[in-house]
């Protein structure tokens, strides 16, 4: 657009636009629209007004063509369970846990007034790992129905997990050995429960009360969504938003422990100990 100086027709006013054709080009296609600014004291004022008018028109045009970007989709790239109700999320996570061949579990568990720290690898046919109760630590290994308990001499001297003591001589003999726990011994049911994947997870992962969906977060680098029972009083469960909706973190109701679940479906090697590492007391664990 060109700017011309001079007088305007009476119907144009102080400033305006007019078609302009250069001399020698009568063809209308060679004509262009120009801004006409009169001479005199109003010239500067008219120029500023024209520039400002152009800027306003440009800004208005840009505003009309653009729009705010849509909010990010929180479910993009996820397994989609974040769109489900809390009840369905819990159901999907429990089914995924039951179908998995194995899992590693770590954390704390309060049962019958005692706090246990667990580091367990569980499969459908057994499990292996360490359990710490108060100041006592022992290793459990179960393959099928065979259950072994391994601990140091101090564990047996003070009394094993069932409170039985074998005396100094027996304790030295059991130090670092895999002691076979008889199925008829009262300790068998209690100890084998730590190695029973299905029974343990079913009891640990169940939320109580009215279920609700909570915030999204990350657990060990994995995106997760939290669901809770009775606003957390009935427990809180974090379920993976990536791949299979496995449970990742369980915070039990009433402060009864917090457990992290990892390595779903990964291989867990369970091997029966050698005979020279094993002690078999028959139908009952050693007593004082």
Number of strands: 15
Shape: elongated
- What is the H-and-E element order? EEEHHEEEEEHHEHHEEEEEE
How far apart the termini lie comes to 108 Å
Gross CATH architecture of the largest domain: Clam
Total count of helical runs of at least 4 residues: 6
Helical fraction: 10-25%
Structural overview:
The chain has 6 helices and 15 strands. The protein has a 12-stranded mixed beta sheet with strand order 10-11-12-13-14-4-5-6-7-8-9-15. Strands 1-3-2 form a 3-stranded mixed beta sheet. The protein is an alpha+beta fold and 288 residues long. Mean pLDDT is 81; it is low at 1-8 and 55-64. It is elongated. The protein folds into 2 domains: 2-65, no CATH class; 81-280, outer membrane lipoprotein receptor (LolB), chain A (Clam), CATH 2.50.20. 23% of the residues lie in helices and 33% in strands. It has helices spanning 42-65, 86-99, 153-158, 167-174, 186-192, 197-204; strands spanning 2-5, 16-20, 32-37, 102-111, 114-123, 126-133, 136-143, 146-150, 178-181, 211-219, 222-229, 236-240, 247-251, 258-262, 278-280. Strand 4 and strand 5 form a beta hairpin.
């Amino acid at each position: 657009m060109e700017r011309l100086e001079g007088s305007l027709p009476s119907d144009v006013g102080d400033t305006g636009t007019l078609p302009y054709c250069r001399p020698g080009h009568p063809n209308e296609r060679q004509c262009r629209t120009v801004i006409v600014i009169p001479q005199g004291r109003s010239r500067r004022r008219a120029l500023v007004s024209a520039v400002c008018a152009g800027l306003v028109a440009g800004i208005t045009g840009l505003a009309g063509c653009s729009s705010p970007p849509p909010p990010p989709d929180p479910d993009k790239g996820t397994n989609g369970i974040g769109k489900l109700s809390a009840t369905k999320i819990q159901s999907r996570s429990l089914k995924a846990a039951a179908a998995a061949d194995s899992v590693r579990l770590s954390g704390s568990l309060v049962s019958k007034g005692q706090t246990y720290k667990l580091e367990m690898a569980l499969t459908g046919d057994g499990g292996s790992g360490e359990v710490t109760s108060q100041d006592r630590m022992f290793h459990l290994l179960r393959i099928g129905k065979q259950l072994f308990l391994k601990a140091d001499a101090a564990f047996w001297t003070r009394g094993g997990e069932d409170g039985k003591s074998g005396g100094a001589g027996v304790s030295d003999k059991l130090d670092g050995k895999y002691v076979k726990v008889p199925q008829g011994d009262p300790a068998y049911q209690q100890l084998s429960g730590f190695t029973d994947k299905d029974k343990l997870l079913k009891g640990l992962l169940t939320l109580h009360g009215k279920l609700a969906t909570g915030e999204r977060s990350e657990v060990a680098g994995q995106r997760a969504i939290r669901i809770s029972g009775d606003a957390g009083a009935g427990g809180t469960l974090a379920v993976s938003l990536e791949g299979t909706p496995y449970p990742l973190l369980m915070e039990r109701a009433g402060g009864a422990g917090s457990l992290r679940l990892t390595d779903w479906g990964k291989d867990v090697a369970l091997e029966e100990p050698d005979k020279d590492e094993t002690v078999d007391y028959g139908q009952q664990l050693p007593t004082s």
